[in-house]
Here is the input.
Amino acid sequence: MRVWVIGAALLASACGGTSNEQEAALVENAVAQAEAAAKNATAFGKAAEKAREAPSRDGWLGKWIGVEGMVLTIEKDPGGAVGRYRLTNVWGLDDEMKGIFDGVATENGIAFNRPDGAKEVVAGDGNATGLKYLSGKQDCLIVATGEGYCRD
Here is the structure.
């Protein structure tokens, strides 16, 4: 891939009347792009490997109920990837506070990104949610203090 990109840059530079500085800049840009692509591929591969090594969260599949219409539904990844999940989440009353997100199993739970930032769902009980309505429940998932979902 890197050789192809560098070769294309050299070929393009030979067609016009470009200076040595312009040719050098084209080659440097091509190398930088190839290195960035390799770095991204490596990071994605490491994340996928960690997801495969993480404990299964399949026991969390299904619908979890919070307060005031808050809901978290966890499904297996539609592509069947190990350690990957699809989360459908309503975390507030506003229309912008709902969505579908891709999650990755972690050592502690399932990590995902929402518009309000990176989140991680972890197991806990109703008391740990900080929500009076969920107090006393035993089978819960917590995203943050004040945001939890339980099964009855």
Q: What stands out?
A: The chain has a mean pLDDT of 83. Residues 58-150 form one domain.
